[in-house]
Structures are given as C-alpha cells and as structure tokens.
TrEMBL record:
PANTHER family attached to this UniProt entry: TRANSCRIPTIONAL REGULATORY PROTEIN
Keyword Phosphoprotein on entry: yes
Pfam families membership: AAA_lid_14 (PF25601), HTH_8 (PF02954), Response_reg (PF00072), Sigma54_activat (PF00158)
Residues annotated as domain Sigma-54 factor interaction: 140-365
Top-rank taxon, per record: Bacteria
GO molecular function terms attached to this record: ATP binding; sequence-specific DNA binding
Biological-process GO terms, alphabetical: phosphorelay signal transduction system; regulation of DNA-templated transcription
Name assigned to this protein: Sigma-54-dependent Fis family transcriptional regulator
Keyword field contains Ubl conjugation: no
InterPro entries recorded: AAA+_ATPase, AAA_lid_NorR, CheY-like_superfamily, HTH_Fis, P-loop_NTPase, Sig_transdc_resp-reg_receiver, Sigma_54_int, Sigma_54_int_dom_ATP-bd_1
Amino acid sequence: MINLLIADDEKEVGTFLSRLFTLKGYHVQVVNSGQQFYELDFHNHHFHVAMIDLKLPDCDGLSLLRHLKTLQPRCKALIMTGYSTIKTAVEAMKLGASDYMEKPFDDISVLEAQVENLLNHCTAQHQQVVHKLAHDSGLIMGERTSMSALLETAYKVAQKSVNVLIEGETGTGKEVLSRFIHLASPRSHEPFIALNCGAISESLLESELFGHEKGAFTGATQQRKGFFEIAGNGTLFLDEIADASPAIQVKLLRVLETREFMRVGSSQILHTNARLVAASNENLQQAVMKGKFREDLYYRLNVVKLDIPALRHRKADIPLLIEHLTERNGQANRTFSDCAIEKLQRYDWPGNIRELSNVITRTLTLTDSEQTIIAEDIVLPNNHVLQPNIETKAVQTIINDPLTEWRKRLVEDFQQKKEMDLTDLLSEIKKLESIVSKEIVLQALQQTYGNRNEAAKRLHISMRKLRYILNEKNHS
C-alpha cells in the first residue's frame, strides 16, 4: 500500500486531501504542526510521498524537509506553497524536494497527477532522461556532485513557467544550460531565441527585443517582429543582462509584470508567453547595490538562480570534456595521453570551457590525425605573450620605458633646445594615446578570443568606449 504523509496547518486542507487520496487506495497520515511531524516514528513507518506546506505555525517547511530527507532520503517530497513563497519552494527543490504545488489548488487533477508522477518516478530512468537532455544540449554533467545537483535543479525548474537567472564566469556555458532548461521544459517544441545584451547598442537592442514598425527610425524600411514576439510560447535567453541600459531595463520590467509590449514606433499592445532566462557573468545583486541594475527587475528575474561553477573548480571533468569536444570536432577516434590530460588539468582556465574548447580545437587541427596527442602538442594560452604591433618609434619608447623616463627625456630636450612647440607636442601625445589604446584593446580582444564584452570588463571601460576606440582605428 502507498503511504502518504501530509503536513499542513489548515485542518480543512488536510482532511480534504486525506479523503481524496484515501479513495484512491492510499494510506494517509496527516499532521497539522511541526511538533506533530517531529513526533512521527520515521524509523518504523515508511512514507512514499510527503506533501509539506512551507508555512506551519511553529516551524518552516524547509526544516521538515531536511528532517525527512535525513531519515527517509528516498521519500518523494511535494512542497505546497503560496505564490509569494515560490522562490522558497525552489530552494526546497535544491534540498531534495521533487516538485512543488501552488496553493490554493485550482485544479485537483493536476495535484493528483503530480503525486502519481512521483510514485511512478524511476530514479534510473530519470537519470537517463537528464543525461540525454544534457548531451543533446551540449552539457557535460561530469563527476562533481555540485554539477549533478545543478542539472537536477535545472531539470525540476524547467517544468515550471518561472523566470530563471543564471550566473557564472564568461565561458562556463550559461547559454548551454539555458538550452538544457528549454529542452527539459514543456516548451521544447517551441522556439529558443538567444540574444547577447552586451553585444549591440541600446537602440538596436530595443528593436531586437520588441520589433519595430516601418518608418519607426532611419533604416526601418519594413515592419520587423522582435524576439519576444518570435519566441511565442518558447524560451528567450538574454545573455549579459547586466549590460542592458536603464531604459531597456524599464521596458523588460514592464514585459515581466504585464506580459505586454509594443513595437518601436507602434501604439498597439502585443502579448507574449515566452519564458525568460537571463544570464550574467557578474553578480547582479552587487550590481543592484552599486546602482547599475534595477532592484525591481532583479527580483523579477531572480525567481530561480542557478550558479555554474568555473572550470577550475571542476577539473576532474576535463577528461569528459575533452572526449565531448573531440567528438564535436568530428575526431572521436583521437586520444590524449595521460600527460596531456594532466597538463590541461594543471591550467586554471580563466576563459573556462570556451577557452578549453579553443585549445582542443587548435590542438586537433595542428596535429597529425593519426597520432596520440601528447603534452608537447598542447600550447596553453599563457605560454604566449601577445605583443602589440607597434606603429611608431615613439610608441615603442612609451611602452618599453617607464612613462616617467619618457617625460624626463622630453624635459631634457626642451632644456637643450630652449624652445618647443607645445601644441604640436600635445597633438603627438594625443596620437600616441590613440595608438596605444588601440593596441591594448586589440590585445584584450586576442586574450578573450574576440569577446568584446569580456575585453571591456578587463579594461574597466564601457562597451561604448571600446567601440569608439576600435572605430578610431578604422579611420586612422
């Protein structure tokens, strides 16, 4: 017989659920407080499913969940929650809850189906499903418990229509994880649209997100649908959300609050049912504290937050990642020696999986397709000091010598010549500044494999400033 445990302080709810599931042939135990829950004899009474309310008068549901999972880890837990505590319900899922249900119960048949799904849940089969979805999306679960727990939480969350915030360093695979969420969700047959907010200007980003009408601005020769409209019932992934301008943040907040938007140049209200998954390589909560990101938008996005570990924290997964990357490059038959793998594991990978992918691709390309790859075949990024392409002798002087020495020589020249055209000198200094700025930006772009957003962050300049410097180069 199926043993069902119900923990809810509302006696009417407990009585109703007891009668509902008793008629289905279950044995039901109801408790109305945390004290009654702790007094249960979990050692002699095994429960298959526990339905736990998050808000009890004498304790919170998370404490009960921890107690249950300690004594009966195989018992499936269904969290019952009000809408205002959905975020806490997601935390419960991270602690081992299998699912959650919003109260009040609008459709009892949905609740019945959830309980039946938990009872029919086969752990081995479930793991196969998660692994297949991870493979299809390009994710490697690896050997670290933290990564497996992350994907398990992402899989559970994917079933719900809630916004997700993914945080992690550049190159950790935030877009790949968002694809996993899309494939694991009921929206998997709908469009998946990805957009990098830091890669395009504010005016273009608004048009990309919401679309525009013909004649809305110069160059708008025809009506264009935005990504919210194109995504429809699918998933919209917004990468580097922290780079969205304040004006765009306001518009995003309105969409999340009302599910409504307007094309640029139009007064017609359109509706969207797209699920939003946002990502950032910087801590959004800190960005809020610094005044760089809207607090109300942050809380709208942060219904569920998933943190992807950096590659340096999961080096044990590097052999599996190598296998996946060689297969993706169409060279599944290639092998790496133990020394080669050890060399890759000793490196800290500041560019994470994206950097590893570039190294593996370059190594496979430059070595004989018949040979085993050894440590000497692998050239790590930190073995290369990227030298700037110096255009003038004056610039070479500035870079090779301390600036104080360069200034000292200028003063000595003035003392010897007794005169100097200061306007011409300042003009030359401005040219030198422009040249050096361009070379440093190019170095940063080389080191970040062309990722402009990451290059700007390393140089502590805005994307607008970076584009300005590169445009100067085009006109010099």
